[in-house]
Design goal:
Ribonucleotide Reductase Protein R1, domain 1, two-stranded parallel ribbon, two-stranded antiparallel ribbon, Fumarase C, Chain A, domain 2, 60% helix, Arg_succ_lyase_C, mainly alpha, binds arginine, 18 helices, Fumarase/histidase_N
Length: 470
């Protein structure tokens, strides 16, 4: 049996917990990350106890000093949890008792680990979300700058990973920025919904002591107190929702990673990775591997696992608190920490990518990528698209039999396929023409892409600013 005198709940038990129970239930090895937030909550709670007349002036001063001292020691590492501390709350109460003696035991009045942990996790995640948004903004900026530096470079636009129609390479890069901006929007929406405080809910029913949940909420930067104490301690929507956004962000980073892996192959050769952002092989001296892009792709798997795992953990839980909910933390910490590793690495990789514009220029029109332009040229001359599609398809077939591209056909070849194909069709057999022509909103025309560039550069700056605002 473990002798655990620091337990927060020993009174009615004749014996201590079995080792197997102690080992199963201990969470301090991961929830120690919540320590700074737990201490902020404790300071707010101490002030409320003081206003309720449950701590006198001198006690409040000593309590706040001790909490500040403990916070400094936690951050310097001078105060650490021990093997006997069940969780972060237990460890910090021990720290307070070591500093204040019996006075330290007054802080627990009116508070339970149930409202405490829910509050801590919200505070932690609201902070983490700001760090994530700052890193996403850096990646957005890196992609926008790469697009700006290559504003005139065309690329083979693809569907089914086959040459489809010419696009600007910048258009393709910016297509990776838009999903990130939506992720930031989602995180900001999430933040507004999560800005409500559970503190004051106690175990589940509120407190008979004259506390002031609205005051603690405001002190902790929340918009107010959660209006139902049972919901306050049971709700983990903010965890599931955050994990969904993290998983979707992970999927977006994975799709970007996959494209960079392709672009860096010798078959594509669209980009070269900078030495500092690629790795070598232990056996093949020539290798330059896109490990950052691959890890970005790989991490998406565990992020998807985290949201799935937490939803499954929650689905059958009766209200209010159940210990199952302790399982919410590791996925959250892991999602935050993995994303904080991946995002800066991707931003560095993107900002240092060398774009092979000659190769992009040369391969953009290949694979008969201008066939749609021929069909649309015919449509402008009154040919029904159904027929125009067939005619252009016949040209492609002819090219394939000769192993040439559309612009290499002779004038006579065009008219032989269809009399309506006079040689002026050559006017649309250019990449520039194909790009310029797609000038409606959302199109790949250089003028439209320039508009996108300007708008997204501004959005990224605004995202960075939000991340540092209180
Ligand atoms: N470590 C616990 C958790 O993370 C803290 C809350 C414990 N509450 C309780 N009633 N045992 O969920």
């Amino acid at each position: 049996m473990t002798d655990a005198p620091r337990r927060l709940w020993g009174g009615r038990f004749a014996s201590g917990p079995a080792d197997a129970l102690a080992q199963l239930s201990v969470s301090v090895q991961f929830d120690w990350r919540l320590a700074p937030y737990d201490l902020l909550g404790s300071k707010a709670h101490a002030r409320v106890l003081h206003r309720a007349g449950l701590l006198d002036d001198d006690e409040l001063t000593r309590m706040l000093d001790a909490l500040d001292g403990l916070a400094a020691d936690v951050s310097s590492g001078a105060f650490r949890p021990t093997a006997d501390d069940e969780d972060v709350h237990t460890a910090l109460e021990r720290g307070l008792l070591e500093r204040l003696g019996a006075l330290g035991g007054k802080l627990r009045a009116g508070r339970s680990r149930n409202d405490q942990v829910a509050t801590d996790l919200r505070l932690y995640l609201r902070d983490a979300v700001r760090q994530l948004v700052a890193r996403i903004a850096e990646l957005e900026t890196a992609l926008v700058s790469l697009a700006e530096r290559n504003a005139d470079v065309p690329a083979p636009g693809m569907t089914h990973l086959q040459h489809a129609q010419p696009v600007l390479f910048a258009h393709q890069l910016l297509a990776h920025v838009h999903p990130l901006t939506r992720d930031v929007d989602r995180l900001r929406d999430w933040d507004a919904r999560t800005a409500w405080s559970p503190l004051g809910a106690g175990a589940l029913a509120g407190s008979s002591l004259p506390l002031d949940p609205e005051a603690t909420a405001r002190e902790l930067g929340f918009r107010g107190a959660i209006p139902n104490s049972i919901d306050a301690v049971s709700d983990r929507d903010f965890v599931a929702e955050f994990l969904f956004v993290a998983a979707l962000l992970g999927v977006h980073l994975s799709r970007l990673g996959e494209e960079v892996c392709l672009w860096a192959t010798s078959e594509f050769s669209w980009v070269r990775l900078d030495d500092a952002f690629s790795t070598g092989s232990s056996i093949m001296p020539q290798k330059k591997n896109p490990d950052i892009a691959e890890l970005a792709r790989g991490k998406a798997g565990r992020l998807i696992g985290h949201v799935t795992g937490v939803l499954a953990m929650l689905k059958g839980l009766p209200l209010a608190y159940d210990r199952d909910m302790q399982e919410d933390k590791e996925p959250v910490f892991d999602a935050v920490e993995q994303l904080l590793l991946v995002l800066p690495a991707l931003a560095g990789m993107v900002s240092t990518l060398q774009v092979n514009s000659e190769r992009l220029e040369a391969t953009t029109p290949t694979g008969h990528a201008l066939a749609t332009d021929v069909a649309e040229w015919l449509v402008r001359r009154g040919v029904p698209f159904r027929d125009a599609h067939e005619i252009s398809g016949s040209l492609v077939q002819l090219c394939d039999t000769r192993g040439i591209e559309l612009w290499q056909l002779e004038d006579a070849d065009f008219t032989a396929v269809d009399a309506r194909l006079d040689p002026s069709v050559r006017s649309v057999l250019s990449v520039r023409g194909a790009l310029e022509a797609r000038s409606a909103v959302g199109g790949t025309a250089p003028s439209r892409v320039a508009e996108q560039l300007a708008a997204l550069a501004e959005t990224a700056t605004e995202h960075a600013a939000w991340a540092t605002r209180d």
